[in-house]
Design a protein that fits this description.
CATH topology of the largest domain: SH3 type barrels
CATH architecture of the largest domain: Roll
Number of helices: 9
Structural class: alpha+beta
CATH class of the largest domain: Mainly Beta
Helix content: 40-55%
Largest sheet: 6 strands, antiparallel
Number of strands: 8
Number of domains: 3
Shape: globular
Strand order of the largest sheet: 3-8-4-5-6-7
Radius of gyration: 18 Å
CATH superfamily of the largest domain: Ferrous iron transport protein A (FeoA)
Distance between the termini: 47 Å
Order of helices and strands: HHHEEHHHEEHHEEEHE
Amino acid sequence: MIENSPTPTIEDYLMVIYVMQRDGKDVISARMAEWMGVSAPTVSVTIKRMIRDGWIYLDERQHILLTPEGHAKGAAVLRRHMLSEHLLSRVLGVPWSAVHEEVGRLEHTLSDMTTERMAAVLNEPVACPHGNPLPGNEALVGDLIALSDIAAGTGCTIVRIDEEGEENTQLLAYLERCGLLPGTRVVVREVMPFNQTITLSRDDQDIVLGFAAAQHIHVRRS
């Protein structure tokens, strides 16, 4: 049993590792550094500390895996983060594109009691405002396809902007400005591999996205 509570930095790492494992991605230090926007040496130092404290371990391929304690804490941190996003968005009116970053500034101060109170007041949401599932609700997004994999002429409904995409505040602001939010139906009008862009049609308006952005948008054919 781990006796000490994780620091805010360790909580951030646990949440990212939890999400990457949930989505079936190999978790390595270089990938985490890219996702979190920190240097590789910084990640290496933190990973060593997390191994020492019993939150994670390395397998034979040197991939990072959560221990049972790390998995439970990562799920709890992610749930608290997503509930806080709903609170800021639905109750305080913080813009959809800003809630992820804003929550990062305050979430580590919230107690378990406050988290459970938020869940009750918000009527136990099953997904965050960006469409990502709260822990225990992963089946809701199991059939989704990345927008970057949708063929031209296909109609689809946006369901989620994945957690890595949430880290890009400029992308979120662009999607909000264009009305490309979860629940929006679009048609993929054109796919241009030579310049890596996708043109969407929404309410007779054409919207252009790069492949790099489209891979973070997950849709259901409709």
